[in-house]
Amino acid sequence: MIIRGKLLEAAPDKQKSNLFALSVSKAKTFKTCKAKYRFQYIEHLPKKEWEFQIFGSFLHEVLENFHQYIIDGSKDPDNIVMSKAYKAALEIWGKKLTSDQKKQCFEILKGYLTIRNKNQDNLPEVIAVEKSFNIELDGQILLNGFIDVVQIDSDGILHVSDYKTSKHKKYLKNDFMQLKTYAYSLFLEDPSLDIIRCSYIMLKFNFDTIDVEFTREEAMEMEKEFAEYSELINKERLFRASPGPLCNYCDFLGSCQEGMDKTGVGKVKFGEMDW
């Protein structure tokens, strides 16, 4: 099966496009739990807003602002730029953050400035933040997404990164689908590239990274993988749940009987009775 991907300048109008929209998160949701896929992408049920998601979104916003100010030509010292970035993000997320979250974010960002200060002579050149991509696959699929950071390292290698606020690294060390997709999009954009460096940046671990590099040939494997996901999703009819430990953190637990049975949510406790 030969699949051909074409990078689009912008996403087509949803009302006029016959393309099946697909993304890394959409494909992984289907793989993890088909019922969750149904709740989120077919029935469009409202999602629960978790504290850890607000925390992560705020940190993403600050770091995006910080690097965008520098890309736009700011010559202010890093601490001044970070202060502006922090205040701008607070205007969006401040009311949703707890005081403890603000303190934790502040310490994480202070640590980032310390890292940059120690490496002033060897800092990468960040060339894009929240870089979007839209790829048409065989005239049937629209693959889209956003890349947190695109930079050129001191050795000249193009490097893409994704910020993670996970408490554990083990879940990411063998899961490079997201980064491989990002590399694929940039290989389509620049035919001269032979290799792309990729990283998960662990914000809660002092910006430690989980690194991998992909060749053009390796990244092109994503065309076939997303075509297979599209076929499986479009053939699915039952969208059954896959109950497991992650049910406790599901946005749609209250709508899923299998999930509630797994977690015990909604069960009447001994001595309780509904009248």
Descriptive overview:
This protein is an alpha/beta fold and 275 residues long. The protein has one domain: Lambda Exonuclease, Chain A, CATH 3.90.320. Helix content is 41%, strand content 20%. It is built from nine helices and seven strands; from the N terminus they run ββαααααβββαββααα. The chain has helices spanning 24-32, 34-42, 51-71, 78-93, 99-118, 177-189, 216-219, 221-235, 257-263; strands at 5-8, 20-22, 125-137, 141-152, 158-164, 195-202, 208-215. A hairpin with a 3-residue loop joins β3 and β4. The protein is globular, with a radius of gyration of 21 Å. The termini are far apart. The mean pLDDT is 94.
Radius of gyration: 21 Å
Q: What percent of residues are in strands?
A: 15-25%
Q: Per CATH, which architecture?
A: Alpha-Beta Complex
| Global structural class | alpha/beta
Number of strands: 7
